[in-house]
Amino acid sequence: MTTEQIAEAAVAKTDDAPFGRVCALTELPAVDPDTGRYAGVIDEVWTIATKVHGGTMVAASAAAASNWLRAHDPALAEMAPIAASSDFLGAPEPGAVEYEVRIRKVGRQICLADTTLVQGGRGLVRTALTFGRLDAADPVHTVGELDMPAAPPADAIGFEPGSRMGDIVHVGRGADLFLDRAWSPFLEDRRGAPRLRLWIRPRPGDAADAAVAMYFAMMSADMSPPVPMNLGHFGWAPTVQMTTYLRRRPAPGWLRVIATTNEVGQRMFDEDQLVLDSTGAVVAQSRQLALVPSGFPGA
User: Start and end of every Acyl-CoA thioesterase-like C-terminal domain (predicted)?
Assistant: First the structure.
């Protein structure tokens, strides 16, 4: 069987677990005993215009590293990918991909691994992962209650197919996804502060699987559209580098994503995304450096 056939055979064709299909990886024969190899599929649901969504690739890379770490030592199964630092070397096409994983360190508190997402024989996304134990107790200090409803209000903007956002951000076909209207003046061809916030929720089958729900939270830390859209820069923002943190396992229900920036330059901008679960706890964070949007390729 080809890699594509192996990956497709492992994917569960269930409508209520579309992100679970991304995480359904099949181990491939080893070329090097120190390197784990996995086949997977990222289908067109997880694309922005024609490009595979960056957060999805990071989360899937974390899933591959988790599999190889457990294979290395089953006692490490409780370790979770608490940090991921990703460099995007190229843009893969939706479809079959491979993941190559190497373990860099095994410790009692921290483990380190590197994952490379490969397609067509090329390494396209390189992620350095740190594994540790997630927080479970109440925090000692937090930013406090944010003025954002736990669930999307009636006037929130959906990403259903046929809508302005849904025809570009296809993730709305694989998760429940809504944008805060008050923070999105670009949708009415107006300008405003470079900040956005949204709500995202996994489908029932994904929410029921604790591991998939955890990777879904990591993916959600890259879910906001680029905040320069509110400044009139509408389009795809190629990520130069992104760091993602996973803080705790999400409670059931909606995740809230708040995106802000420190500076939008002429060429690049930074974007921070904070992910809160239905209880208000911080479950994931990200910071990325990206190129200022200049239109959507292929859209």
Answer: 162-292
